[in-house]
Amino acid sequence: MIIRNPIAAGYFYPRDPSDLRVTIEKFMRRAKVDKEVILGAVAPHAGYIYCGEPQAYVYNSIIENPTFVIIGPNHTGLGSNASIMCEGIWNTPFGSCRIDSEIARKILGNSRFLKEDIHSQTQEHSIEVQLPWLQYKFNSVKFIPIVIGSDDKEVYKDIGYAIKKAIEMTKTIVVASSDFTHYGYVYDYVPVTGSPETILKYVENVDKEAAKAICERNPDKFLNVVEKYSATICGKGAIATMLYALKENALKGRLLKYSTSYEVSKDANSLVGYAGIILI
Q: What is the CATH number of the domain that holds 143?
């Protein structure tokens, strides 16, 4: 049995279970949303202090406990360009989450590009940080972790359709783990300069245009927005893959909450946008 222990606890979210519960509860209480049967979502993956509010809006809207396909980017560059884990347990301070091996193996069998590979997942935080929110809501969580580092639209389409086929007639939610625009010299992305207001307006306009394409369930339009602005949306592949998986079944999307790290850091020279989006 493969056991993956947390690598983001104590950095992106509290390591102590009591502190973690208090942190999540604080955000959940503020996230006033209607409970819905949702098919997909976009949730950010930064430190909870920065992006906990958009995450809370997404996870507070979930009405039932299905299996979760969680797709994240490959920040580390380790392992293969498109990987899936088909068995094992991921631990967090709240306990363990088990991989749904049956659905995972169906996804793997349906794809030309996915490889079964743990190396791209052991040090990747983008999937791990989603799990405590699900554990907070549900007694047990079953999920499938997929990490995508490819820049190829055909890979997104292939994996999206592989997911679509595998989850037919199941209760499954597809979550794309992604932050939005990363602005600043540290991210090598400075398309505008000026006052904090000027920078924030630019970043929000880019992110809202990308969010609109997501809410329209249009992966090609979303990728065109990313290309148009050279947008530094780290999980663009995860988002596009989720959209290809759900575009024929989802009826509409909704942007529940948008924020930026500036609201916490007050630093406009290095900021990141965060969006909480659901597809229903």
A: 3.40.830.10
Q: Is the pTM of this model over 0.90?
A: yes
User: CA–CA separation, 187 vs 124, rounded Å?
Assistant: 19
Residue 139 confidence (pLDDT) above 90:
no
Give the CA radius of gyration of the chain: 17
Q: For 225-238, what is the mean pLDDT? A: 98
Q: For the chain, how many structural domains are there in total? A: 1
Contact 214, 81 (CB under 8 A): no
The DSSP H or E segment spanning 155 is helix 153-167
CA angle 205, 130, 42 (to 5 degrees): 30
* Burial label, 99 (beta-carbon count in 10 A; 0-12, 13-18, 19+): buried
| Pairwise CA distance, residues 178 & 181, whole Å | 10
Whether 171 shows a pLDDT value over 90: the answer reads yes
> By residue range, what is the domain housing residue 61?
3-279
The Cα–Cα gap between 150 and 1 comes to 28
pLDDT tens per residue, range 89-104: 999 999 999 999 999 9
